[in-house]
Amino acid sequence: MDERPLILLTGATGYVGGRLLRVLEGEGFRVRCLARRAAFLKYRTAEGTEVSKGDVFDVPSLDQAMEGVHTALYLIHSMGATGAFEEMDRKAATNFVGAALRAGVRKIIYLGGLGEGPNLSAHLRSRQEVGRIFRRSSVPTLEFRASIVIGSGSLSFELVRALTERLPVMLLPRWVKVMAQPIGIEDLIRYLTEAVTLPLSESRVVEVGGSEPLSYQDLMEAYARERGLSRLMIPVPILTPGVSSLWLGLVTPVYARVGKKLIEGVKNQTVVHDPSARELFSVEPMSAREAIRRALMNEERAFAESRWTDAVSSAGGKPPGPETSWMGARYIDQRSRRVSTTPGRAFSSIARIGGRNGWYAFNFLWRVRGAVDYWMGGVGVRRGRPHRRELRSGDHLDFWRVERFEEGQLLRLISEMKLPGKAWLEFEVKTEGDRVWIHQTAIFYPSGFLGRLYWIAVKPFHELVFQGMIRNMVRWAEAEVDSPFVRERRRFRGLKG
């Protein structure tokens, strides 16, 4: 029988919880996750981690998840929900602490928000009310209060990123001068991890933040410096938080509903006043600029190591058509098609692209783009491919280079063209039962405003080229060709364009 204390983690599918789960598993903790979508977590947890299907609004499922738990981590809130999120937060917290009492839980760890004063925003007021509900119970509770979290995927950080990336000229309302104390996601995870083993006999509040307070304007300027962006910031005496939230919905519509609630709270200063975190924990918080730098570096590494069909769509479905979206600082164009052939045959249609074999659709446009690149001092398309039938990592492919190659499964190309940003093109073969799919994903990471203009300018051509490419790739894979390779190429000429 495993004698290690059992930890219940809520919010494991969320931004902070997902990262904390990996750390807890890596350090050998015994973890049980409470999740509404248990199937989503099933293949994302380590061996030995339990997944309990349930919901904080479903008391029987909570009671089941709490059985045998020593420490419960509460990393959820209802801010993204429609309706009265404060009442939902209140009910969820009451249900959670009731289940913890019935199960004899020894400690609750809760992540709330910094802020003080009688005029707290509804968002911060609700976060702090949840902490009070926990602390008023007889279960010892450690309530962390944090400001903005800096890390790829954090809503606050993504709002700062979207505004800074998309607006070369920014009109800055008075609220951008409000002080905050952003904390890097790595530091926050270390605090939460150390808290699991911290002895706690009574409830208390611990304020955590980065190494120094700074304003929202300082944060945007720090992000711009790290990305090498030149931004003109003009202070104006208008645009209250309420009006700014409406404007935000136009600039960054993907974040409009939740972002509105965050923006309404920026009138509240969120800085650390209580230094006790330094005494209780071994964490030496990094600066905001270092946190931004590390967030961008970690994002690049994780993005390079991931399979993009999994990263773009976590729902597990295989969309039959194009799906264009904005992911972090990148534009994504994803297309998937089912192919009636074997996985090997499907991948052979992928591995033959480029050079004299062509690009399956509108080859004259590829040559025009290569000529423009050559005229601008780039490599153009004169390099072709080193071998007509074989590829490996590091090979050049016209104005691309093979960044990652997994025989029979994956081909990822990185562009070596002269571009206002970075571009990748990935192809992957996946099977689902007896069905075979080809996934095609184009990624563009724009560099500032010019990069965005470039994407807008070429997007109509992408629609034609990428759609034709995957369509003809599937046709080639499904063609019953048993002749030598050179005859295959002649037969395929009729499918081009």
TrEMBL record:
<dbReference type="InterPro" id="IPR051604">
    <property type="entry name" value="Ergot_Alk_Oxidoreductase"/>
</dbReference>
<protein>
    <recommendedName>
        <fullName>NAD(P)-binding domain-containing protein</fullName>
    </recommendedName>
</protein>
<dbReference type="InterPro" id="IPR021295">
    <property type="entry name" value="DUF2867"/>
</dbReference>
<dbReference type="Pfam" id="PF11066">
    <property type="entry name" value="DUF2867"/>
</dbReference>
<feature type="domain" description="NAD(P)-binding">
    <location>
        <begin position="11"/>
        <end position="117"/>
    </location>
</feature>
<dbReference type="Pfam" id="PF13460">
    <property type="entry name" value="NAD_binding_10"/>
</dbReference>
<dbReference type="InterPro" id="IPR016040">
    <property type="entry name" value="NAD(P)-bd_dom"/>
</dbReference>
<dbReference type="InterPro" id="IPR036291">
    <property type="entry name" value="NAD(P)-bd_dom_sf"/>
</dbReference>
